[in-house]
Amino acid sequence: TLIEEDYYPSTYNIATGWVYDQEQIVLKVLEHFPDIEPKYVEAELPPQIQRQTMKMTKWHWKPKWNFDEAIAKTVMTFKEYEEDWK
């Protein structure tokens, strides 16, 4: 079991290891919406990027998609189920 294999107790942050700031993510999403122009506003607080170590390597976990594919699939899902969130 996982407990016997020294995987417990521990916190696992399932992540890809990719680190992007908010602007990079917004610009990537906007590639799927070419008619939208972003509106830049001053942030009230300085942006914070949390760098997390990926502990899932113990289990040889790796992401199924790269960043571009993940954004494209997310956008596609939101478009497909637009009636649920509008």
Could you describe the 3D structure shown?
This is NAD(P)-binding domain-containing protein. InterPro entries: NAD(P)-bd_dom_sf. By secondary structure, the chain is mostly helical. The protein has one domain (22-84). The protein is built from three helices and no strands.
Number of helices: 3
* Radius of gyration from CA coordinates: 18 Å
Task: Find the count of extended strands (DSSP E, 2+ residues).
Answer: 0
Return the average pLDDT rounded to an integer. Answer: 75
> How can the largest sheet be summarized?
none
The percent range for strand residues is under 5%
Low-confidence stretches: 49-53
What is the CA-CA span between the terminal residues? 44 Å
What string, H for helix and E for strand, traces the elements in order? HHH
What does the overall shape look like? Answer: extended
Total discrete domains: 1
Structural class: mainly alpha
* Share of helix, binned: 25-40%
Task: Give the topology, please.
Blueprint: H1 22-30, H2 67-80, H3 82-85
Could you give a short description of this structure?
With 86 residues, the protein is an all-alpha fold. The protein is built from three helices and no strands. Residues 49-53 have low confidence and may be disordered.
Highlighted features:
mainly alpha, NAD(P)-binding domain-containing protein, 0% strand, NAD(P)-bd_dom_sf
